[in-house]
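About this split. The held-out portion is used to measure sequence recovery: a designer receives only the structure tokens and must propose an amino acid at every position. Recovery is the fraction of positions where the proposal matches the reference. Here is one held-out target exactly as it appears in the evaluation file.
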């Protein structure tokens, strides 16, 4: 019997306006969960070589979730804004009465060698990718404990969170931080029946994953390319967001009921080489 049903559950997804976050929201809704979709929906990342989402992207996520027959609450909040995330969680409880699943997915990437990027560029990666995830944890965990239903938290790190590549060391530092935070949280929340795991995507077909500004880095430093070898599986393209969602929904569900503190690569075998 499948235990991947999420009927009656409520899931918060950050970075849900497009890309992997949208896919996770839609796939969680298809499994039966109502959704709270958080995204900044504004051009607030100064150093990424690609634009962030716009409000109409979040509206499209809402349309797709509703097409799955589920309810959705959308919130335009920057994950760096702890009070904004706490207000979104308060609205979640007011509207849905519970919170079971958290997907801490929002993130940005930019490129540059560690000693050449500015302090501001380094800080942006840490503030959005690591402090933003901590803010999500800080905002959501009290409500999950209070509800007493257990639950599942999935953080989105990266293959760069366990195998640091050149050219984006600030990104790697933030994603290594996400792995450490997730492992500590898994231990701390075990007594409440709340599982905490992280997924490690690599090369996924989203605006972040197809950002061509990374090519300038490879042109200037050709040796860096050896840190990005061909994948073992399906070598003809990037991973699709829906393929990451399969792992996320599994971790969110009772099918992964004995999995906590784990780092799950979803990377066509990149980390195995
Ligand atoms: N695409 C890849 O190749 C890849 C690989 C490994 C890990 N990841 C990680 O996957 C996650 C999702 O990225 P994606 O590939 O879907 O990229 P994406 O750029 O398509 O989506 C990221 C979403 O996060 C939102 N966002 C950015 N900064 C925010 C902020 N401060 N507050 C709230 N929302 C914010 C954006 O508006 C966007 O909708 C990120 O954490 C990323 O680091 C991506």
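Reference sequence for scoring:
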């Amino acid at each position: 019997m499948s235990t991947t049903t999420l009927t009656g559950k409520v899931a918060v997804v950050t970075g849900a306006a497009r890309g992997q976050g949208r896919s996770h929201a839609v796939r969680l809704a298809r499994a039966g969960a109502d959704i709270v979709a958080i995204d900044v929906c504004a051009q607030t990342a100064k150093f990424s070589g690609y634009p962030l989402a716009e409000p109409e992207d979040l509206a499209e996520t809402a349309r797709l979730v509703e097409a799955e027959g589920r309810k959705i609450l959308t919130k335009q909040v920057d994950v760096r804004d702890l009070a904004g995330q706490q207000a979104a969680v308060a609205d979640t409880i007011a509207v849905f009465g519970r919170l079971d699943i958290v997907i801490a997915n929002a993130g940005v990437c930019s490129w540059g060698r560690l000693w050449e990027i500015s302090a501001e560029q380094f800080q942006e990666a840490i503030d959005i990718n690591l402090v933003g995830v901590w803010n999500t944890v800080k905002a959501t965990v009290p409500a999950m404990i209070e509800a007493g239903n257990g639950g599942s938290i999935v953080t989105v790190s990266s293959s760069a969170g366990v195998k640091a590549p050149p050219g984006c060391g600030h990104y790697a530092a933030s994603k290594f931080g996400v792995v450490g935070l997730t492992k500590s949280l898994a231990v701390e929340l075990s007594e409440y029946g709340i599982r905490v795991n992280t997924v490690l995507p690599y090369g996924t077909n989203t605006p972040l994953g197809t950002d061509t500004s990374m090519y300038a880095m490879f042109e200037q430093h050709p040796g860096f390319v050896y840190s990005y070898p061909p994948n073992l599986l399906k070598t003809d393209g990037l991973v699709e967001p829906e393929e990451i969602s399969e792992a996320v929904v599994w971790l969110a569900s009772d099918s992964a009921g004995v999995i906590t503190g784990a780092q799950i690569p979803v990377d066509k075998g990149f980390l195995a080489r």
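Annotator remark: The domain at 10-272 is CATH 3.40.50.720 (Rossmann fold).
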